[in-house]
Amino acid sequence: MISVAGTDIFQQLIDLLDAQQARYRVMDHEPVGKCEAVSALRGTALEQGAKALVCKVKGHGIKQHVLAIIAADKQADLAALAAGIGGSKASLASPPEVDSLTGCVFGAIPPFSFHPSLKLVADPLLFERVDEIAFNAGRLEKSIVLNTADYLRIARPELMAFHAA
Q1: Separation CA 143–CA 38 (nearest Å)
Q2: Nearest 5°: phi and psi at 146?
Q3: What is the pLDDT of residues 85-118, one digit of tens each?
């Protein structure tokens, strides 16, 4: 894991993807953080969007920050996320927590954890429906479209269903 303090997350992503010989492309666009708007700018389907939520899971002796990745066309079931981690409740992290754990603003968080205290989990539905995922890459004006198999191989998220029915 790499600490996010004082780093350029976009450059860390590019370096990681290049080192791992990932199949990806970078797109420049207007600085937008909303899933629907950025999907339109990228020309990608909403279900390809990898929405990243920084959450806190507590209860049953668990106190864990989680980077939860879900398809942009789905809503997260935070109770299911908490149960999957072993806790009793989950909530979204505060803006200062998001900044310290990701080095990114809301809407720019990529589906990779570069912080040792941020557990990476992903809802498998995202990967079952598309061959490529799309996400803002540490900056609101930069996106990456990445081969799904390469994402799973490189990021190695814990897979757990937590999308709302």
Answers
A1: 9
A2: -125, 140
A3: 999 999 999 999 999 999 998 889 999 999 999 9
